[in-house]
């Protein structure tokens, strides 16, 4: 059957407003966030109900048409865009963006999977609660994508990743079966927790159409400090001390190397006066929903010891909301700073906390020996063992060419180092299409075999986002 | 081949000390914790290494011999003991109880799966850290069983269930494949998180042989209060208020009905003077690892508002370690109090926090209308929406007969009520063999289908703990 016949059949299912087949309008759906690859499709479908999603999946499966589920299309790993074959359709959840319920007593929010993260955050806040998932893309990424990539971000240290927030799920399997378990229970041990399979599955096991997320009390007080790290400051020990003495009120421990801070500063129209110490800086924040705790007082008490020990050269406490905002703006402008400088090759490294310093030492030496002129931008959620270890694209060099060269050479050396320290090549960005070869290189064989079993169990015909993560058993690797 | 030939082959794999085939010595391995059912086996194997476990599994799979993995044999649902066929062997992990590593900087502990929970707690504490998993059976249950049942207990409110603590896993699949992913990473998004499948799987997908668990700073200060609930006190609102104003320092919110408190008091040799209010009592605890917070002061400030509102009739703050211990001892003696009174039929209910009061009202009416003379013992981790809603076995009545009668009649009414409120029949005890029919009755069809796919993916021949949770696809239900 020709693709135009299929498009007509899909149109019957979702209506005219639910189908895009004009190449110009489809363009944004087939190019990944980092613009490293452009795929091809013959239709972008935009269902409005779970039933429509199930109908689409059944029809596609019947004709062997591959499906690429898409939320906000903010994947860093090409997990949300089709391959070049032109035989996969894109199913965008962008019209399924209803907030179904906020339950303030149960502290939960139930949403359509296409809900933009920011909108869900706002709905929770309106009920006096916090949806503790916060990341750079929050204004455009969607909850289904957050689940598909087990999104992390800025609140992991205190509240965990998306997995830790997920209470209930609604999803359509590759044969059109609908899993409907939108319960808002904290505890529900009744056999395998099927929803866990979808977390981090990047659309390869089915299409998540709805989710229930846990909420937390909304912080009403914050204390924020900018720490200039002294030479030789032991990052992991500093973190352990602050965690312990803040009694888990610590919500952020964000490390930034001096170069990253400088890049961000250059990119700001109203440049920050915040500076790095010899080993960079750490942004520390405590948050509390209680009227009975003085967090500034606590911050001062907690920091006295590491200042005394000479780990911190200088600590600046935010004295106002605008000072706090300025500290965060500097941290959040780093990616923009990299972009202005001609971009960066990103390495989303995670190592055990006890190996962070060792990784920084070894990786730094590797970069220098690879090319003494390369510059790094290193920052990240060190409180979770997560470093964004980015190699800056030199001025005047083609970004995509450089990226491909580094990713096939230096990047592997860096990942080897992370792996040797018990770390990983992807802390929070996922695998998608771009990092499949890394999964094969570093994944435990038993674990990969189990992953392929799971893929086979849910999607034996490889309908769902084929080409991402793993293939079913029996299929030859498509790489 | 005869079973004695098999026993000889197993003896070759694990040595004389690793095989029990004397019926008398096997007895404790085939009877469940609640002594509701006694199964049969021809051998109990006690491997000492992961390789031995893999060898056992391969040999058993080759001959189609079923395997029941066993940790501390403390399942409330018959999940750890063999069926009556005599064709399943028991593989006990009790000799694999080595603590492999405590990493204080990474805040993690790596253990053999047969490690007794208490021993792991102690090893963490010796390094100044907390393994935040605590439950009644901690002196005998083992980490592998905690993972297999996603154990909850007393620390869930602050630290989550076993799933939330699990960083790494080592497991043997039904074909002898070993998954080895003992990394201690907070963040590692590299495809499906295979270890999640084992959490709550009760030995039906493979045998967990090792685990890495996250640790937390060890609390050094606690504030503990006994709240007598006033008539009409809104439990969920009280919880929400205390959570908010304690800024997540809340570690326990344990509800006890008056009857449960009386039962515990009767069972104590040195009876407590603590009493219930008209709606029972709540044990509240804050904990902190910081030297800079005064938790008693915080507790007083937090409780002022609900006292003012008339929700709490009286609040007693523990003034010493021994007063604190006395409060916890009362809470923890409730199961013993029930046992002394002739036992209870346990219902491990969970409902959304917003429906707890409604459940108590509806369920109470159901019990009264079923039999006006029945007495209840109701208590639990209400902070997680979890109620142990137990029907006391009347004096002079046969416990097992009564249990079976209630479980086939009144229990179903109570579970119906929980289900209608978006709740579940098993918050933390699991499914095992005893609650399989409930999974079929209340489970979403799509979810059960997905569970059977997962079972099929990992164990198509139904070697691993057959009869518990679900069967592979293609098999008729064994119920």
TrEMBL record, chains A, B:
Keywords for the protein's UniProt record, in alphabetical order: FAD, Flavoprotein
GO BP terms: respiratory electron transport chain
Annotated GO MF terms: catalytic activity; FAD binding
Xref: Pfam families: FAD-oxidase_C (PF02913), FAD_binding_4 (PF01565)
InterPro entries registered for this protein in UniProt: FAD-bd_oxidored_4_C, FAD-bd_PCMH, FAD-bd_PCMH-like_sf, FAD-bd_PCMH_sub1, FAD-bd_PCMH_sub2, FAD-linked_Oxase-like_C, FAD-oxidored/transferase_4, Oxid_FAD_bind_N
FAD-binding PCMH-type domain ranges (all copies): 37-218
Family: Belongs to the FAD-binding oxidoreductase/transferase type 4 family.
Name of the protein in its database record: FAD/FMN-containing dehydrogenase
Annotated organism of origin: Bradyrhizobium shewense
């Amino acid at each position: 059957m020709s693709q135009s016949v299929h498009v007509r059949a899909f149109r019957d299912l979702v209506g005219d407003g639910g189908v895009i087949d004009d190449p110009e309008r489809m363009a944004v759906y087939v190019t990944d966030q980092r613009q490293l690859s452009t795929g091809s499709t013959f239709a972008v479908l935009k269902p409005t109900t779970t039933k429509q999603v199930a109908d689409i999946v059944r029809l596609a499966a019947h004709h062997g048409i591959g499906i690429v589920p898409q939320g906000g299309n903010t994947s860093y790993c090409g997990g949300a865009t089709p391959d070049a074959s032109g035989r996969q359709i894109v199913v965008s959840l962008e019209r399924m963006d209803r907030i179904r319920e906020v339950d303030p007593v149960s502290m939960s929010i139930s949403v359509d999977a296409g809900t933009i993260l920011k909108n869900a955050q706002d709905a929770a806040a309106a009920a006096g609660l916090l949806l503790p998932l916060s990341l750079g893309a929050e204004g455009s990424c969607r909850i289904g994508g957050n689940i598909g990539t087990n999104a992390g971000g800025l609140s992991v240290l205190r509240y965990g990743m998306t997995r830790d927030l997920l209470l209930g799920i609604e999803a359509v399997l590759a044969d059109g079966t609908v899993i409907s378990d939108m319960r808002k229970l904290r505890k529900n041990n009744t056999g395998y927790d099927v929803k866990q399979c979808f977390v981090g599955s990047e659309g390869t096991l089915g299409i998540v159409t709805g989710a229930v997320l846990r909420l937390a009390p909304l912080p009403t007080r914050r204390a924020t400090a900018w720490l200039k790290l002294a030479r030789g400051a032991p990052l992991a020990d500093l973190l352990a001390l602050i965690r312990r003495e803040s009694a888990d009120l610590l919500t952020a421990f964000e490390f930034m190397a001096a170069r990253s801070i400088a890049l961000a500063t250059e990119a700001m129209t109203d440049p920050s006066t915040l500076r790095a110490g010899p080993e960079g800086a750490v942004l520390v924040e405590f948050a509390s929903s209680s009227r009975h705790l003085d967090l500034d007082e606590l911050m001062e008490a907690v920091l006295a010891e590491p200042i005394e020990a000479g780990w911190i050269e200088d600590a600046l406490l935010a004295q106002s909301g605008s000072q706090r905002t300025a500290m965060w703006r500097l941290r959040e402008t780093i990616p923009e700073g990299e972009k202005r400088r001609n971009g960066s090759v990103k390495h989303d490294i995670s190592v055990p906390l006890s190996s962070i310093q060792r990784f920084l030492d070894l990786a730094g030496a590797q970069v220098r020996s690879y090319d003494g002129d390369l510059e790094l931008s290193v920052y990240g959620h060190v409180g979770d063992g997560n470093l964004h270890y980015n190699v800056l694209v030199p001025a005047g060099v083609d970004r995509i060419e450089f990226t491909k060269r580094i990713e096939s050479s230096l990047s592997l050396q860096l990942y080897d180092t992370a792996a040797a320290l018990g770390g990983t090549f992807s802390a929070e960005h996922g695998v998608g299409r771009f990092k499949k070869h890394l999964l094969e290189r570093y994944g435990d064989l038993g674990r990969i075999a189990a992953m392929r079993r799971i893929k086979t169990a849910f999607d034996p015909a490889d309908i769902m986002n084929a080409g991402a993560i793993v293939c079913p058993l029996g299929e030859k690797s498509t790489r």
